[in-house]
Amino acid sequence: MNFVNCYEDFNRANAYATLEFANTYYLAYRDLPAILTEHVSGTRALDFGCGTGRSTRFLRKLGFNVTGVDISEDMLRIARAADPSGDYRLVLGDNLNEFAVGAFDLVLSAFTFDNIPGAMKVRVFCDLRQLLAPNGAIVSVVSSPEIYAHEWASFTTKDFPENAAARSGDVVRIVVTDHQDRRPVEDIVCTDESYREVCREAGLEMIQMFKPLAKGNEPYPWVNETRIAPWVIYVLKRTT
Ligand SMILES: C[S@@+](CC[C@H](N)C(=O)[O-])C[C@H]1O[C@@H](n2cnc3c(N)ncnc32)[C@H](O)[C@@H]1O
User: Fold this and answer.
1) Nearest residue (CA) to ligand 1, atom 26
2) Which pTM was predicted?
3) Which mutation among 106, 112, 142 tests ligand 1's pocket best, with the greatest number of atoms within 8 A of CB?
4) pLDDT at position 65, please?
5) Kind and range of the H or E element at 48?
6) How far is the CA of 217 from the centre of ligand 1 (A)?
7) Backbone angles phi, psi at 46, to 5 degrees
8) Which residues line ligand 1 (CB under 6 A)?
């Protein structure tokens, strides 16, 4: 598949950097503190696909000692400027060899796997598993397949009706309405069944899965968020 990472783009990076934790994104982050408290012991964290650093700064505020990595220098440049004392590194061609085996208690990937083609997912999860300490956890926040076929406080997909027929592994399009860049983002849809298969092949056990819904009393203009989960959060541990 000829898939281009749309985050290797100066204008997209600048727009993305303005996103914080409002609207639909609130639901991606709301439950993470409780999930991390329950499943992670230790403070050594890798933020895989840190982007402009939103997820890295989130972990740092929770007390983690975080290294953020990304393949996009455009995104990293902004992350470093926003957080000069943070540790943000460019990884080339998904090469994570600079990190020691077992180096991290937590690997967080927030939305990163939405942009990793199906065939690469197993290999990348295998590499991340190697970096986990024996009782370490991968917490992976991904877009649910439903996000691409509905309207949301932070996103629109109405111009892409073909998304509804997309199968796991297909490219889908979505526009972020929370920032200025209205060019569609191209993601790769991945069903829960496919993620479970990827985890099995990568030697990871799915410990828990969350599909966060809005309660309705939050200060955000929910569209479908009270009844359809836009995100899925997986907690994964090593089977070996
Ligand atoms: C949607 S952004 C999420 C950024 C950040 N985690 C957040 O929550 O704001 C996804 C990021 O993953 C990065 N990415 C995609 N594939 C990657 C890979 N194979 N290795 C590292 N980063 C990757 C992209 O460059 C992009 O910056």
Assistant:
1) 51
2) 0.96
3) 112
4) 98
5) strand 44-48
6) 31
7) -110, 125
8) 5, 7, 48-51, 54-55, 69-72, 75, 91, 94, 110-112, 115-116, 124
